[in-house]
Structure formats: structure tokens, C-alpha cells
């Protein structure tokens, strides 16, 4: 058996800078990962099968188009494996759960089968967020998701993720954008500490946030709930939403913030975790 962690992807910034002829958007995004995520286990087997368990399993069917099975087929090898996906991340929530599972599947199966990963174009075809999830560490993401530049070391930080239990469709949010020619990010410098980092991020944006919020106004409530917590240095939406993150410099403050938001909103999904370096 081999296991892989599939961490939540968090877009600390997300600038939409243009659109390609095929309709895909050009992005400029500072992407990090949180120590909150799904777990994938694979064991040798004759046939390729998928079983889904865990607290978010109900939201997802183990159908052929599940990103884990699509990732397995992307090797083009027609080999078997019994895959178990322990689903913790809410589905269609802007933290790339499906893409993280696909990336974890690629890593786990390459190891199980003793083969190389599929080429970059094949990986990108699984989803625009799959290359960044395969990288699995802080990067600046550009193009439609295929151009990844490593970042200088980031300061220690904690993230609180909160989702209101309602999904927004990524293509719908892209369609609702007021403009698609926003400014790119400046060069990402080194940071003295987490406050310095948060100050830099505060000057940047998630350009999808106003569009997502117009489709799902509760996103504003989620962001405000995080922003109101002691020690929260920045609250913003991730990806196309609806999950928002709060950035904290101290673990105890992040844990207390997650507890307080969950207590006030028992129906929301709320988790705290270290920002992975
Ligand atoms: C917006 C982002 C930002 O990281 O995150 P999420 O909200 O999904 O977490 C991603 O670009 C989403 O990546 P992913 O969810 O893998 O997208 P895909 O399955 O490839 O595409 C779903 C749909 O989104 C639109 N799309 C996606 C990526 C992109 N750069 N431009 C687009 O216009 C397209 O309409 C596409 O049909
Ligand atoms: N293993 C998977 N986990 C989550 N979603 C999946 C998976 N496989 C396929 N999907 C589909 O992919 C879509 C995007 O899901 P997800 O990656 O969680 O969204 P987001 O990138 O917005 O967080 C969903 O509509 C879902 O039905």
C-alpha cells in the first residue's frame, strides 16, 4: 500500500490578466498549500477501482469521470490498482480538491507501478490546477496554470479555511467577471516576517472574488467572519470560491479563530492548518 496526502490549494492572490483564443483565462496567482486535505491510498490490484470514504464522500460519486480515475488513465497503461480516497475537502470550493486528488493519484500510481509521470501537456489536460498541485509547494502560477515559478522562502504562517457549504461553478464565475485585463502581480520579494508578507498580499487581489460574491453573497459573510478574528492578518477568497482563507502568524490564534467561526456557524466547513513550505 502507498499513501499520498492531497493538500488544499490556496490562491493567496489571483489576478486575471487576459483570455486566450480558446476562452481559457490567463492568471497570475500566488499559490500555497495548507496542511488540510484528502488522503489517497493505493494497493496493487488486477482492475482499476475507486472507493470514496470520509466526511465529504457524499458530495462525490466514484464515477469514471472522477479526477482520480482520469489521472490513473492518463498514464495510458491500462493497469490495475485499488484506490481509496478519503475525502475531507469540500467539492467545487476553490481549494482544488479534485486537482489535489488527481496530483496525489499521479504520484501514488507512478510509485506503485514504477513508471514516470505523464508529460506536462497530459497533466494540464486533467485540469488547469493539476500542475500546481503536482508541484505541491509555494509557487507563482501563470498562463492558464501551466507556468510555475518557485518563490523565495515564505515566513511561517497558518491558514484558517472556511466554506459555507454551497458550491459555485468555476466556469460560471469566469463568465461573470466584469473585466479580464487586470494588472499582473509585481515581482514577489523576500519577506522579513509574516506581517511583512501579509502587507504585500493586502496590496494584491483575487479578481474572481467580486464575481463569485455577486453569484453567492454569503461569501462576503465568510470573509468578514474570518477577518473579525483576533490575529487575522488577511482574509480573502481562494480560487473561484466559495472557500475563504484567513492568514495568521501564530498557531494558537489560528486554532482559536477556527473554533470561534465553527461555533458561530455550525453548518460551515472550517479547518485550520499550517501553510506548507
Ligand atoms: C480558478 C482556479 C484558480 O486556481 O481554481 P479553482 O477555483 O478551480 O480552485 C483554477 O484556475 C481552475 O482550475 P481547474 O478547476 O483545474 O479548472 P479546469 O477544470 O481546467 O477548468 C474548468 C473551467 O474553468 C475555466 N477556466 C479554468 C482555468 C483557466 N485558467 N481559465 C478558465 O477559463 C474554463 O471555463 C474551464 O472549462
Ligand atoms: N476527486 C474529486 N474531488 C473533487 N471533485 C471532483 C473529483 N473528481 C471530479 N470532481 C469534479 O470536479 C469539479 C471541481 O471540483 P474541485 O476540484 O473540488 O473544485 P475546486 O477546484 O473549485 O476546489 C467538481 O464539480 C467535481 O464534481
UniProtKB/TrEMBL annotation:
Its biological purpose: Catalyzes the phosphorylation of the position 2 hydroxy group of 4-diphosphocytidyl-2C-methyl-D-erythritol.
Catalytic activity: 4-CDP-2-C-methyl-D-erythritol + ATP = 4-CDP-2-C-methyl-D-erythritol 2-phosphate + ADP + H(+)
Pfam families associated with the record: GHMP_kinases_C, GHMP_kinases_N
Domain GHMP kinase C-terminal positions: 195-264
Positions of the catalytic residues: 9, 129
GO molecular function annotations of the record: 4-(cytidine 5'-diphospho)-2-C-methyl-D-erythritol kinase activity; ATP binding
Family designation: Belongs to the GHMP kinase family. IspE subfamily.
The name this protein goes by in its record: 4-diphosphocytidyl-2-C-methyl-D-erythritol kinase
Source organism: Gemmobacter aquatilis
Top enzyme category: transferase
NCBIfam families: ispE (TIGR00154), PRK14608.1 (NF011202)
Enzyme Commission number: 2.7.1.148
UniProt entry keywords in alphabetical sequence: ATP-binding, Isoprene biosynthesis, Kinase, Nucleotide-binding, Transferase
Nucleotide-binding keyword on record: yes
GO BP term (any one): isopentenyl diphosphate biosynthetic process, methylerythritol 4-phosphate pathway
Residues holding ATP: 90-100
Pathway info: Isoprenoid biosynthesis; isopentenyl diphosphate biosynthesis via DXP pathway; isopentenyl diphosphate from 1-deoxy-D-xylulose 5-phosphate: step 3/6
Chain ranges of the GHMP kinase N-terminal domain: 66-136
InterPro entries, per database record: GHMP_kinase_C_dom (IPR013750), GHMP_kinase_C_sf (IPR036554), GHMP_kinase_N_dom (IPR006204), IspE (IPR004424), Ribosomal_Su5_D2-typ_SF (IPR020568), Ribsml_uS5_D2-typ_fold_subgr (IPR014721)
Origin organism lineage: Bacteria, Pseudomonadati, Pseudomonadota, Alphaproteobacteria, Rhodobacterales
Amino acid at each position: 500500500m502507498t499513501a499520498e496526502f492531497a493538500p488544499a490549494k490556496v490562491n493567496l492572490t489571483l489576478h486575471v490578466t487576459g483570455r486566450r483564443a480558446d476562452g481559457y483565462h490567463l492568471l497570475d496567482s500566488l499559490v500555497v498549500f495548507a496542511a488540510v486535505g484528502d488522503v489517497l491510498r493505493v494497493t496493487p490490484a488486477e482492475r482499476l477501482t475507486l472507493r470514496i470514504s470520509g466526511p465529504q464522500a457524499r458530495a462525490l460519486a466514484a464515477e469514471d469521470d472522477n479526477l482520480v480515475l482520469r489521472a490513473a488513465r492518463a498514464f495510458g497503461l491500462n493497469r490495475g490498482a485499488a484506490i481509496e480516497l478519503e475525502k475531507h475537502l469540500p467539492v467545487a470550493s476553490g481549494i482544488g480538491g479534485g486537482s489535489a486528488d488527481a496530483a496525489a493519484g499521479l504520484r501514488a500510481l507512478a510509485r506503485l507501478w514504477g513508471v514516470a509521470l505523464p508529460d506536462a501537456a497530459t497533466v494540464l489536460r486533467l485540469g488547469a490546477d493539476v500542475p500546481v498541485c503536482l508541484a505541491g509547494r509555494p509557487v507563482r502560477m501563470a498562463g492558464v496554470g501551466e507556468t510555475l515559478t518557485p518563490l523565495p522562502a515564505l515566513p511561517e504562517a497558518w491558514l484558517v479555511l472556511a466554506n459555507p457549504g454551497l458550491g459555485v461553478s468555476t466556469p460560471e464565475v469566469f463568465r461573470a467577471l466584469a473585466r479580464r485585463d487586470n494588472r499582473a502581480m509585481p515581482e514577489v520579494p523576500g519577506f522579513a516576517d509574516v506581517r511583512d508578507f501579509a502587507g504585500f498580499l493586502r496590496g494584491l487581489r483575487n479578481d474572481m472574488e467580486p464575481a463569485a460574491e455577486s453569484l453567492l453573497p454569503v461569501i462576503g459573510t465568510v470573509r468578514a467572519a474570518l477577518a473579525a478574528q483576533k490575529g487575522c492578518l488577511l482574509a480573502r477568497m481562494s480560487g473561484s470560491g466559495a472557500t475563504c482563507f484567513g492568514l495568521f502568524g501564530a498557531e494558537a490564534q489560528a486554532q482559536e479563530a477556527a473554533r470561534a467561526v465553527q461555533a458561530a456557524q455550525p453548518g460551515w466547513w472550517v479547518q485550520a492548518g499550517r501553510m506548507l513550505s
